[in-house]
Specification:
The complex is a heterodimer of chains A (about 170) and B (about 170). By secondary structure, chain A is an all-alpha fold. Helices cover about 75% and strands about 0% of the residues of chain A. Chain B has one domain: Four Helix Bundle (Hemerythrin (Met), subunit A), CATH 1.20.120. Classes of the chains: A mainly alpha (about 170), B mainly alpha (about 170).
């Protein structure tokens, strides 16, 4: 994506704040792969997380297509996690198929989250409250000052917009 | 909260109400999906109903856990009896509110769906309204709560909302 490619360029130019932005943007993604795909936890997960971003910092200039930074980071994370797993006394690698499926699900979840971020504020708010915070129609209606009887149709409309953003 | 020892989980009315409302939400989702292209918001309505069905299925299990824990505390006179009873009241409040949402979603779908499927959507609203009322009664019956407790008020407000939606849904369309 254009925004991600631009962020890579700014990191390579050592623009102030760019690296922080990159870590912020991908930290949840990396942590999700580490913890969900490879089931690392505690200090193991924290060390893997640090290793990934050290490698990103060291090797970002080798990334050929800046728009492909997400799969590149996913690949780095996989290697770091496999290294950690193989160093254990009884290394048990998770099946490649399961890891692939988990990363695919994570990619989709993060893509939805990004599409959500591009929606107008009113849609973002109502979808976040219903799907992420599990709030009832009445609670949402009370918080946003709209009749609870209109929330279901508003969510439906906003989901149509979300799909359009997601597929764009 | 989990049950202690080897006691199996006791599934009472709260758990059954959550399962009923979850089933109702699944029916709402199916009606919305089958209505399909004739209504642009159908997929969105189905997605909401699926979200509600999943949440209610989880609440059914949570309710069984807190209900079992409360029964154990009552039987043994456990020092944390009050806390366990309070916890056992919280879950049916959420079940009542989620069931009311299912009734609302069912009304939304009943007003827009294929006429052949309307009875299913309206019936789902009625099921959800029954589940909301059953849950509200559980909240009121909880020994730890006073009748003017905000949770009792919330649960019955949800039951009233659900009943209104069900009556509207049953009247929707020809």
């Amino acid at each position: 994506m254009a925004g991600e490619a631009d962020l890579v360029r700014r990191c390579l130019d050592d623009e102030p704040g760019a690296w922080d932005e990159l870590v912020l943007l991908y930290s949840r993604y990396v942590y999700a792969i580490v913890s969900q795909a490879y089931r690392l936890s505690g200090p193991d997960a924290e060390d893997a997380f640090q290793d990934v971003f050290l490698r990103v910092y060291d090797r970002l200039d080798t990334l050929r297509d800046p728009a492909a930074i997400r799969p590149w980071i996913a690949q780095l994370t996989r290697r770091v996690c496999l290294d950690r797993v193989s160093r254990r006394e009884e290394p048990v690698e998770p099946g490649a198929e399961r890891v692939d499926a988990t990363i695919e699900e994570l990619d989709e979840a993060f893509a939805v989250r990004e599409a959500l971020g591009r929606l107008p504020e009113d849609c973002r708010e109502v979808l976040d409250r219903f799907f992420c915070r599990d709030e009832s129609y009445r609670t949402i209606g009370d918080a946003l000052g709209i009749p609870s009887g209109t929330i279901a149709s508003r969510i439906s409309r906003c989901l149509v917009k979300l799909r359009e953003e997601f597929e764009a | 909260m989990s049950s202690q020892g080897n006691t199996s989980l006791r599934r009472g009315v709260g758990s059954a109400a959550a399962e009923t409302a979850s089933k109702a939400a699944q029916i709402v989702a199916a009606v919305a999906r089958e209505t399909g292209g004739a209504w642009p918001g159908a997929r969105g309505a189905a997605a909401q109903a699926i979200g509600l069905a999943e949440r209610l299925a989880t609440l059914s299990n949570v309710d069984a856990q807190v209900f079992t824990a409360a029964l154990e505390a009552l039987a043994s006179g456990a020092p944390d009896l009050q806390e366990r009873l309070e916890a056992a009241a919280e879950v049916p409040v959420e079940i009542a509110e989620k069931a009311a949402d299912v009734a609302e979603a069912a009304l939304h779908v009943a007003e827009r769906c294929d006429g052949l499927l309307r009875a299913d959507a309206a019936g789902a609203a009625a099921l959800a309204a029954g589940a909301a009322l059953a849950s509200a009664q559980l909240v009121r019956a909880n020994l730890a709560l006073k009748p003017d407790d905000d949770r009792v008020r919330r649960a019955f407000r949800a039951a009233d909302d659900a009943r209104y939606c069900a009556s509207q849904a049953l009247d929707a369309g020809p």
